[in-house]
Amino acid sequence: MTGATALYDVPGPRTRRRHRAYGVLSTAALLALVGWILYLLFHTGQFTATKWMPFAYKGIQELLLRGLGNTLKAFALAAVLSLALGGLLATGRLSDHRPVRLLATLLVEFFRAMPVLVMIFFIFVALKVQPLPALVAGLTLYNGSVLAEVFRSGVNSVERGQREAAFALGMRKTQVMGYVLVPQAVRAMLPAIISQLVVALKDTSLGFLITYEEFLHAGKLIASNLDYDLPFIPVVMVISPIYIGMCMLLSWFAGWVSRREQRSPKTEAVVVAAAGPGAPLPGGEPPTAPRP
Predict the structure, then answer these.
(1) If 0-12 CB within 10 Å is exposed, 13-18 middle and 19+ buried, where does residue 58 land?
(2) Which of 7, 53, 160, 204 is the most exposed place for a label (fewest CB within 10 A)?
(3) 4, β-bridge pairs
(4) Backbone phi, then psi, for 204, in 5-degree steps?
């Protein structure tokens, strides 16, 4: 063996050959799986011109763009309201007043346990709300309750000494939260927040069940068209990359915000000047001890 560390033993020649064999076999298995899927797609005629013809028409393109715009609108509203509701419920759960804390806990646990689809249907059918407000309200209640737990856990993850030091300086609780705890907790919370926003983005597809004309609803209308031989698979192959791209764009935006925060003057280290000779004391030179 060429060397080792405390955490990892460097593999020897036989192990490296075995790892290369595993890599070759895994690659071959993945290529075989992709080839089998492509064979099924070609064998069932999923790449025929008839099935892909709808996407060449301007009306179909406008339908997809309109559905995509409705999806982004519902997501934007749900994301903003979920963050606001999550912050409000997290503040209630961190409150020093027991009734406020119990009420916030009850709301969080109730809405987090309820299925999103049930809440959306209840708001749409029982309360007779329009499709867009019903979809946004259901997504807000669920994702806001989950984000409340994310915010609370993030604040509680900050080292206890930070809180105690801030209180020792005479800061009020709102100042401790706003200036000490929350800024430090943001970095820890950001991945979980983005993950939950991705969930909210994907859950906007539930809107087609209440006749909201979002992206999946537009795809369903195209896929169920008998004139184009029910192009279900082509619709999936068009819509899925767009959903994946939007989720990846959201993750990239979170990474950009994190890097920008690290470069912020508020979080960068302060350069301290090197120590130099101090100013002379008033009245002349300081007294010196007599020489022996």
Answers:
(1) exposed
(2) 7
(3) 9
(4) -60, -20
Q: In this structure, are residues 136 and 77 in contact, taking their beta carbons and an 8 Å threshold?
A: yes
| Helix, strand, or coil (residue 34) | helix
Question: Rounded to whole angstroms, how far apart are CA atoms 235 and 238?
Answer: 5
Spatial contact of 237 and 112, defined as CB atoms under 8 Å apart: no
Instruction: Determine which of 7-21, 69-83, 183-197 has the lowest per-residue pLDDT on average.
Output: 7-21
DSSP single-letter state for residue 285: S
SS (H, E, C) 68-80: HHHHHHHHHHHHH
CA dist., res. 9 & res. 285, Å (int) = 65
Read off the pTM.
Answer: 0.76
Q: For residue 115, is it left (φ>0), alpha (ψ between -120 and 50) or beta?
A: beta
Report d(CA 61, CA 83) in Å as an integer. Answer: 33
- Torsion (CA) 199, 203, 205, 207 in degrees, nearest 10: -150
Ordered alpha helix ranges (H), the chain? 13-43, 49-52, 58-93, 98-113, 116-121, 131-156, 160-168, 173-176, 182-203, 215-223, 232-262
Average predicted confidence (pLDDT) for the chain: 84
Q: Would you state the structure tokens that stand for residue 205, as one six-digit string?
A: 């597809």
Is the distance from CB of 60 to CB of 186 less than 8 angstroms? no
Q: List, in sequence order, every residue forming a beta bridge with 9; answer none if it has no partner.
A: 4
Q: DSSP secondary-structure letter at 226?
A: G
CB of 132 closer than 8 Å to CB of 117: no
